[in-house]
Amino acid sequence: MTVRIKDIAAKAGVSTGTVDRVIHKRGNVRADVQAKVEQVMSELGYRRNLIASALATNRKWKIACLIFDPSDSYWRQIKEGIDRAQEATAHYGVRIRHYFADRFGPDMFARHAASILEERPDAVLMAPSFLRESLDFIKSCNELDIPIVLINSEMEAPGALCYIGQNSYQSGQLAARLLHFGINQEATALLLNLEADTQNSQHLKDKECGFREYFTKNHDKEIKIVSENITNFDDPVQLCCIIGKLLNEYPDVAGLFVTNSRAFKVVGCLERLNRNDLLVVGFDLIPENLTYLRANKIDFLINQNPVMQGYLGIMNIVNHSLLDKEVVPLQYLPLDIVVTENCDYYEQNSYALPMVV
Amino acid sequence: MTVRIKDIAAKAGVSTGTVDRVIHKRGNVRADVQAKVEQVMSELGYRRNLIASALATNRKWKIACLIFDPSDSYWRQIKEGIDRAQEATAHYGVRIRHYFADRFGPDMFARHAASILEERPDAVLMAPSFLRESLDFIKSCNELDIPIVLINSEMEAPGALCYIGQNSYQSGQLAARLLHFGINQEATALLLNLEADTQNSQHLKDKECGFREYFTKNHDKEIKIVSENITNFDDPVQLCCIIGKLLNEYPDVAGLFVTNSRAFKVVGCLERLNRNDLLVVGFDLIPENLTYLRANKIDFLINQNPVMQGYLGIMNIVNHSLLDKEVVPLQYLPLDIVVTENCDYYEQNSYALPMVV
DNA sequence: AGGCACGTTGTGTGCGCACACAACAACAAA
DNA sequence: TTTGTTGTTGTGTGCGCACACAACGTGCCT
Asked: Do A337 and B337 touch (CB under 8 A)?
């Protein structure tokens, strides 16, 4: 039933060794023999048995992962996806080494990148949050012929194998649609970037762009947009002060769009200010946000599928390096709209990944 | 590095054959030897190499799938998930045989069930849409020791391995939340069951129940609910007549909830009636619905993840039968909220399943 | 003619495991 | 004692493939 190398060899009148050389393009096969073997292969519809292949090669694959510290619950979820993929592919000889950068600056990131280059892994998974350092690293990987997969932050990088993550522009549009849907009268929508270094965060800019563009296209309600970058968001008192001032300045604010996972910080302020009347749209199913979502103090959360990002990141490396499969260069994950009624299912998130085969 | 049977045998002072007997619980091992082997196994943290195992057994697995005719695009998506899973596990010897029932009644369904029992497959995947026939079939499978996985319609069936699909009650609640969010004034919400046999459709009842209960809990807006079963929905003229009458009778209708994938039929009528002012919530990303969603004539679609249902159905059988893994009996899939801005990502749906390993 | 290099082809071994079968001991029945 | 039975244990083979290595033929140079 199943076609084996042996069958091809027999039908082509050669030995299995020759078929093997053809399959793996190892050369040293006479042109006419090669043609004959290839013909028989396609005739019989040969498909390599990956099981047997993996067993026979018995090779180890070192994958280095450069992401951020999983003390942040968003990155913990990404790491979870990576670890599940590792588990699912362990018997293919996949071994993962983690490197955690911190948010305080590119130094640690660059140092880890250097360590990885010394380690000479077979592939790299990276969240390219620091633009210049990431580009340098990708270049080095290319020179060493190390395939590299990017997650979480989209960037122009021709040397990378693929990007897996969200479409930031589109997520801004989505947030706009949700606010637009819930706001009836003419009003103001507040867009808040709670980020230390907004200049370096291209994805925040993309979100804002998508958000604004939605309202220029849909002006049946005449909603005004005010955006604000807040860099010192760690001190609640200061944050309250900033937000309070904004709400005074624009008394007709009806909705808030927080462009990253820090919506809970904003809502904390709204509680202090006794403002329960505002729509809030944010990102990411981290515990702090979920608490507010369940209490109806956040209306919508957009899920970036962090677990899936990690999982698919590794799986794409496996598909590329071990299984010789074609990899899609740009893989946008769904923008899940999460409300109280469906958050449980996204939170568990266990269903999609038991595909250990 | 990796612990093999050979290593365990050496450390326990027995042969690999004995270790094999312990691992597979084949018996005929002296009690003290068995204990010793088990101790060594846990000491060394032995994990069976599934790759090698699958290769060695070289067994074929026949899986029979009893679902509905894939000429319906919803069922075509379920079939797609099944086929992808088949492809991903083909080299484990998994072979799938499809049986398609039709919606006209349980006869074909029962006949297929009988054929499957004759075929004696190793496992069965079924959408138990006809209650009595399904129960009979599950009972027969149990007697023959054939594990059976249910998808799409939840039912009380202690003999089944697991259920994978939506939580209908919860999806009703979700629909209610979405309508509630978009309706501002006091108004009426219309719940429409477009189904030939509503009596036999437990999931429709569950959806209605969840829908109504949401509004009894959230009565800040005083929304009235009117529900209607429509059995002859195939004739557009007749359907228009029914819906037009309802809208006349309840002039303050602000939103519609169509409890299955037939929202497009309702919206077709609304177009004829020149009613563009109504919110519409429906189910399933079939082409007809997507067209209306993109044209902003359907506001929200709830995705039931049909591809995933099929895929996970097979994968759970593989996990259970081939890999001896524990299977979670109740696996609710996420209730994806789909709007114009994120429908592309759900429609492609290719991302989640390339996990061919 | 002898020696060597090189292109081409076939053979053998092992990956880790499952399973059939052989081997052996202990004991009971004839 | 012999024979058969049963419980227990070890050995050998093959799953399909990858890869090292041996073997062979050809042509070239000395």
From this structure: yes
